Write the structure tokens for this entry.
Amino acid sequence: MTIDIVTIFPAMVDAALSAGVVGRAIESRVLDVAIHDLRDFTTDRHRSVDDMPFGGGPGMVMKAEPIFRALDAIEAKRGGRLTVLLTSPQGTQFTQAGAERLSKVEHVVLLCGRYEGVDERVRSRVDEEVSIGDYVLSGGELPALVVVDAVARFVPGVVGDDQSVAEDSFSRGLLDFPHYTRPAEVGTDRVPDVLLSGNHAEIRRWRKRESLARTLSRRPDLLETAALDDEERRILEELQKGRRAERQD
Ligand code: 4FV
């Protein structure tokens, strides 16, 4: 897969994409990511990417033509069908499942809005609109970086141990179990004995239980769609029975 990002702040995006597993994957060409400065696709000497809103009102609106030129150039460079995503609060909520689906798309383009947003006619070239949450940011770059990071983890070779991706929260529709590392004691706070037992079957059961308990208390909505195995279903019933008993006390 390839990812092209269109933004008026290329340095901001470049900086964020030069760190960690994603940064290493781009460096080692496991991931093909290109950043495009929208101003390079303007034609006036002020390199204008925005203008006043028709109908009046506060703020500015991003012009359509520079974005169209950028998409034409990327299409010519990638030589294949582009899947164009616009990050905006009007979009579909971004999820782990969405990230996994996008990781299988050949050419993804992320359009980063700024100001009040983009000219509505831009949406004629947009395949999907993606929101990372019900709040208003000053730009679409951070959402685009969220999408790149979540999608990149599904690209083979980006995350060292693909196992950890499979075990990522939400990959199985549950919240993650607690993690511990050395030292075994921090003050009076001791690591659960099971994790020091070396009994991997017990450890796996403990992690399942912790993941289910955490999901039951913090995100019971996730349990409606989580793909539970038989053991997890049994553990969940025990947990729910336990909670019912607690409520009756
Ligand atoms: C946003 C979000 C977001 C709105 C106007 C950019 C800003 C500005 N994008 N999820 N929440 N975008 O707030 O994706 O142009």
Remarks:
- The pocket of 4FV is lined by residues 87-89, 91, 113-115, 117, 131-133, 135-137, 139-140, 143 (CB under 6 Å).
- The first strand starts at residue 2 and ends at 7.
- The chain has a mean pLDDT of 94.
- The beta strands are 2-7, 32-37, 50-51, 61-62, 83-93, 107-112, 128-131, 185-186, 189-190.
